[in-house]
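Field notebook, page 559. I keep forgetting to write these up properly, so this time I am using the form the group agreed on. The chain and the ligand, flavin-adenine dinucleotide, are recorded exactly as supplied. Prediction of the bound pose follows.
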Amino acid sequence: MISILNNLPSGSVIEADICIIGAGAAGISQALALSGRGLKILLLESGFEFADDKTQHLYAGEVADEKLHSPPDKYRQRRFGGSTTIWGGRCMPFDPIDFEQRDYVPHSGWPLKYQDLAPYYQKANQLLEAGMYEYDADKVFDADAHAAIKGFKSDIVKTNNLERFSCPTNVGDRYKQRLLVAKDIDILLGANCTGIRLNQTGNHVDHLDIASLQGVKAMVRAKKIILATGGIETTRLLLNSNDVCKNGIGNEHDLVGRYYQCHIAGNLGKLTVKGPTNVVRHGYEISPEGIYCRRRFALTAETQKKIKAGNMVARLHFPKIVDPSHKIGVLSGLFLAKNFISYEYGKRLKDGNSSLGIYLKHFANIILDPIDTIKFLYHWITKRTLAKRKFPSVILNNKSNQFTFEIHGEQYPNPDSRITLINETDELGMRKVKVDWKYMPEDIESIRRSLKLFVQEINQSGLATFEFDDDKLEEDLTRFGAYGGHHIGTTRMGTNPETSVVDVNCKLHNVDNLYIASASVFPTSSQANPTLTIVAMSLRLADHIAQTLNAGKSSHSII
Ligand SMILES: Cc1cc2nc3c(=O)[nH]c(=O)nc-3n(C[C@H](O)[C@H](O)[C@H](O)COP(=O)(O)OP(=O)(O)OC[C@H]3O[C@@H](n4cnc5c(N)ncnc54)[C@H](O)[C@@H]3O)c2cc1C
């Protein structure tokens, strides 16, 4: 059943076995996985089924430096379905090395291993509609399919690493009917959690305060509470709930909000492949079950350890869009349309010189390249705008065998990169956040070491050449600041309560019924985009919580 808080009388007390706060990727996965086990589940959601400016504005806050991090009301959505209403759908699991304690990555090491998550990754892959759980190109595609560059073989740089694309599945739209028919799930929309209220000893959540923007206030009591409000908002809720613990819940050791990680990303270098254009696989391949997949270049785990570098992947990319010297009509069209593209997808088009001369050159590119531009528009409308499973991104015909690398790298955990509260409050009286995202020299040096091996291996192969501008590396990797939408690390998981906020089961160390389902529990960020892992961790948490309540396995499948 779906209800709206504003239609309930103020002062209502709502009771459930489990209350999940937030109906995004984590919250909806939880609700689906807990359903059918004889429990009463309440799913609280701040937003509605449509975007609403006033609700979205509750996400507003400050950033220390807008060049380094976008404002906090961008790159996340406060509505039913959460940020999956606008996500890109790129899926891949974390690598086994990401869970290890690595002496060259301070504060690394998860209290669980890849194998602990593996069964949940399979289900998460299904839930996000990314096809079969297989990320090795050699196992997905025909044996005669060649590597990213035909004939390229290296024991150090691998190109069989895949990413798979979800539809992209908006979990709100996709699972609404499933949630509606489930008799054990109640969904309450327009219900903003404004406080987590502990008992006097501070070790148990007594109740939650919830409020609508129109002034209805109510209370929720549940045996178990799961915070699934996204990385930044889980942090904000814990810090704001300071009536019993004066530094905020779980913050006895000043950890909540610290270690804030995104990813280090940028387009750089020049890769020139020898031979005809068909020796390169730079775009999307479709797997046997119809999923768009893409190959990435990556260092083996052994090599990462040897050169003491964090995890990183690189995709073949086209030239810088803003520079009209590429003479490609489609890219120039994107540049000219940049103001009509949403903030999140247009941000990387707003770089550098935008003088009249530059605009004229972009216009000229379109006029001189009409056939490819029209072909692209037709492809985009049929395969993206109108398609259910959308073509993931702009890919151009390879005419020159010249590429840049698009880097997506792990960010080292840094206690000084952090989210704090400011005194200004939102419409519901909650203090807003300030995001002070910081990268360290190690982040850049790690990628530099990895890229040097790319240069060595690619040039040695004799099949291609690769070079990058060593002096400009930091600029190239930080030009657009933190990679948006990946909010990681601020309520980190660990075994020691003095150095972590939640335990291996995502439960706050010192509170017996409060759990977190979010990338904020990840101690490290991997090379991987986070959502598949968020969902896998949520499914694992659902099993754990059901066990603690002596509820059995679900009587129906998740999807
Ligand atoms: C433009 C963009 C592209 C992206 N592309 C990718 C990608 O390709 N691959 C990938 O892995 N990830 C991607 N992401 C990230 C992905 O969207 C997030 O990782 C994922 O949605 C996080 O899931 P979540 O459930 O933790 O948070 P969310 O999905 O953000 O859900 C949080 C929910 O909590 C609700 N909420 C918040 N505060 C409260 C409150 N106080 N009370 C009640 N409810 C509350 C919100 O309304 C929301 O519904 C992208 C993000 C963006 C913005």
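OBSERVATIONS:
- The mean pLDDT is 94.
- The first helix runs from residue 25 to 34.
FOLLOW-UP: compare against the apo run.
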